[in-house]
Amino acid sequence: MTHGSSFPPPVPDPSEGEPGAGVVPPGTIPAPLIAVEAGAAPLLPGEVLDGADEPLHVASPAEVPAEARPATRRAQRQERAKTSRAGRDLPVAIGVGLLLLALLLGSMFVVPQLFVVIGAAACAVGCWEVSRALQWHSGVPVPLIPLIFGCLALPFGATYGGPEGLAVAIAASAVLVTLWSVFEGRATAAKSVTLSLLTLAWVPVLASFAFLLFREPNGPMLLLATLLLVVSNDTFGYLFGAWLGKHPMAPKISPKKSWEGFAGSVGGAVVVGVLVCIFMLDVSWWIGVVLAVATVMASTAGDLSESMVKRELGIKDMSNILPGHGGIMDRLDSILFAVPMGYLVSVLAFGTVA
């Protein structure tokens, strides 16, 4: 039995006394009535059937097992209190987020070599999530081994070889991905190469700009500033969107993202960017304005891009390896688009200042 957003064929209304006399419209199954398939486990109130065409009957609360009955109102309020609008367990999500933040800052400012290792590992997990989702949806194999090679080669090439080293690593990884699929001899080799190159470009190529930024003079602070702006974009966008959001930016891709939230993201990030440039980077305030606006635009594009891909694939999260967050890619979506912009703006702006 599948559940979804569509509603099944007409369901008999028991109040009319004869089969087929009435239809229960979507979302209006009255408690205490619960629509269930014949011989199947009962549905809870508010659940609907997707594509069900087998015989249905309407069950009374007495037919519902105790363990399947809705929670009490107090339990429901407690559950809602700890769950965000996105359906996340807030205490768990905050705990995992703080742990990731501590690991990131410790590696950036205490053990720089560890930062590269952690970044390469995150890219590898991200490639695994994306390749698995693409393969599941398309049925076309997406070889993981050459992608893992790229996830190792690109961050280390960018860190220790600069732009030139990154270019060589990208070329080598692209060749390996292509030859790997070709030598497998599958009939879907062309599609496999396309999906593999998409994964390579989306995850390790974009992420490598974080390592280019990291190796610049005062690189850890520059990267931290970019990450703070990404966090500002998400935080202020959520607050203003929940408060004032009425006009969706892309209702078919991300219905909860509004223009009011985007305006809040820009305003909040500009304030944070100016403060960061004055007190952290000791540069002119206007660089913070440029960096903030560019970062918000890139972060929003990254967020919408992953939402579009997930909607096309029919999934909510890329994986569930991060409790309360989903997958690695669900946390990297904005960052992957923001760090190339942060690198470009930082290098150009600081070059001008110098």
Automatic annotation (TrEMBL):
<feature type="transmembrane region" description="Helical">
    <location>
        <begin position="195"/>
        <end position="214"/>
    </location>
</feature>
<keyword id="KW-0808">Transferase</keyword>
<feature type="compositionally biased region" description="Low complexity">
    <location>
        <begin position="17"/>
        <end position="26"/>
    </location>
</feature>
<keyword id="KW-0444">Lipid biosynthesis</keyword>
<keyword id="KW-1133">Transmembrane helix</keyword>
<dbReference type="InterPro" id="IPR000374">
    <property type="entry name" value="PC_trans"/>
</dbReference>
<dbReference type="GO" id="GO:0005886">
    <property type="term" value="C:plasma membrane"/>
</dbReference>
<keyword id="KW-1208">Phospholipid metabolism</keyword>
<dbReference type="GO" id="GO:0016024">
    <property type="term" value="P:CDP-diacylglycerol biosynthetic process"/>
</dbReference>
<keyword id="KW-1003">Cell membrane</keyword>
<keyword id="KW-0443">Lipid metabolism</keyword>
<feature type="region of interest" description="Disordered">
    <location>
        <begin position="1"/>
        <end position="26"/>
    </location>
</feature>
<feature type="region of interest" description="Disordered">
    <location>
        <begin position="60"/>
        <end position="84"/>
    </location>
</feature>
<feature type="transmembrane region" description="Helical">
    <location>
        <begin position="90"/>
        <end position="108"/>
    </location>
</feature>
<dbReference type="GO" id="GO:0004605">
    <property type="term" value="F:phosphatidate cytidylyltransferase activity"/>
</dbReference>
<feature type="transmembrane region" description="Helical">
    <location>
        <begin position="220"/>
        <end position="240"/>
    </location>
</feature>
<comment type="similarity">
    <text>Belongs to the CDS family.</text>
</comment>
<comment type="pathway">
    <text>Phospholipid metabolism; CDP-diacylglycerol biosynthesis; CDP-diacylglycerol from sn-glycerol 3-phosphate: step 3/3.</text>
</comment>
<keyword id="KW-0594">Phospholipid biosynthesis</keyword>
<keyword id="KW-0548">Nucleotidyltransferase</keyword>
<keyword id="KW-0472">Membrane</keyword>
<feature type="transmembrane region" description="Helical">
    <location>
        <begin position="287"/>
        <end position="304"/>
    </location>
</feature>
<feature type="transmembrane region" description="Helical">
    <location>
        <begin position="335"/>
        <end position="353"/>
    </location>
</feature>
<comment type="pathway">
    <text>Lipid metabolism.</text>
</comment>
<feature type="transmembrane region" description="Helical">
    <location>
        <begin position="166"/>
        <end position="183"/>
    </location>
</feature>
<protein>
    <recommendedName>
        <fullName>Phosphatidate cytidylyltransferase</fullName>
        <ecNumber>2.7.7.41</ecNumber>
    </recommendedName>
</protein>
<feature type="transmembrane region" description="Helical">
    <location>
        <begin position="142"/>
        <end position="160"/>
    </location>
</feature>
<feature type="transmembrane region" description="Helical">
    <location>
        <begin position="261"/>
        <end position="281"/>
    </location>
</feature>
<keyword id="KW-0812">Transmembrane</keyword>
<dbReference type="Pfam" id="PF01148">
    <property type="entry name" value="CTP_transf_1"/>
</dbReference>
